[in-house]
Amino acid sequence: MEGAVDIRWFLPCPPAPINTFEALTGPRADPIFQDMILKIARMGHPVLSQIAAPVPDPRVPEIQRLINDMVETMIDANGAGLAAPQVHVPLRLVIFQAPGERADPGLSEDERFDHTAPLTVLINPEITVLDGPAEGGWEGCLSVPGLRGWVERPAHIRYRGLGADGQVIERTARGFHARVVQHEVDHLDGRLYPGRMADISKLIFESEIRHFAPAG
Ligand code: NI
After folding, report:
1. pLDDT tens digits, residue range 70-94?
2. 210 pLDDT more than 70
3. Which of 31-35, 63-67, 185-189 has the lowest mean pLDDT?
4. In this structure, which of 73, 77, 94, 159 has its CB flanked by the most CB atoms within 10 Å?
């Protein structure tokens, strides 16, 4: 329903399990160095407007370190996704999660599979739009703090890229899962969600979202 509050955007992401970093990238080479919380670029910074470069080799230590720091940063900021340009690194690397709490209620087990994703690292991603109409939803962005915007995007996609271990990840996605992946990959091409909005009057402060609540 257009304009209705989609509370999935407001639910905090559950904290990642303690062993998340090791699960994604293997044991830390040097446990003395903690993962760092990185500074997030905000709308207007040129790093958010440029086309990011492909990652030549995901397995080099610099990229593993970047992934660990981005996960730490995303969790600290309570985000659902983060793209490397948002932490001032213009490389084609995103992280995201689509927890079950954000999936549409009433889905079958089969359907839920496409709607949810664990914490995922996607390097050099490519998106293919599959069948189905575009779907509207409220989006937020750590680079556009305090705001929400109503954005229409394809509701069913396939994406492909490399994981932190260099292995191919290929999945289909729907719902919030499809939305968060498209939002993050847009960052790699210098696009923020306000640039995807058809009706800029639906760019609002998140504190005012109640005015868009469905009747009853
Ligand atoms: Ni964003």
Report:
1. 999 999 999 999 999 999 999 999 9
2. yes
3. 31-35
4. 94
pLDDT(29) > 90: no
Among 62, 72, 184, 208, the active-site one is 184
85 C-alpha to ligand 1 centroid (Å): 10
Distance 17 CA to ligand 1 centre (A): 23
**Residue 35, pLDDT score:** 79
* Superfamily name and number for 16-211: Peptide deformylase (3.90.45.10)
- Tell me the three-class secondary structure of the chain, residue by residue: CCCCCCHHHHCCCCCCCCCHHHHHHCCCCCCCCCCCCCCCCCCCCHHHCCCCECCCCCCCHHHHHHHHHHHHHHHHCCCCEEEHHHHCCCECEEEEEECHHHCCCCCCHHHHHHHCEEEEEEEEEEEEECCCCEEEEEECCCCCCCEEEEEEEECEEEEEEECCCCCEEEEEEEHHHHHHHHHHHHHHCCCCHHHHCCCHHHEEEHHHHHHHCCCC
Q: 170 catalytic, yes or no?
A: no
